[in-house]
Amino acid sequence: MYSINNLSKLAPMGEVVPEAMAAFRAWDKIALSDGAIPKKYKELMAIAVALTTQCPYCIEIHRKEAIRAGATEKELAEVVHVAAALRAGGAITHGTHLFEPQQVTE
Question: pLDDT tens digits, residue range 67-97?
Answer without folding.
Answer: 999 999 999 999 999 999 999 999 999 999 9
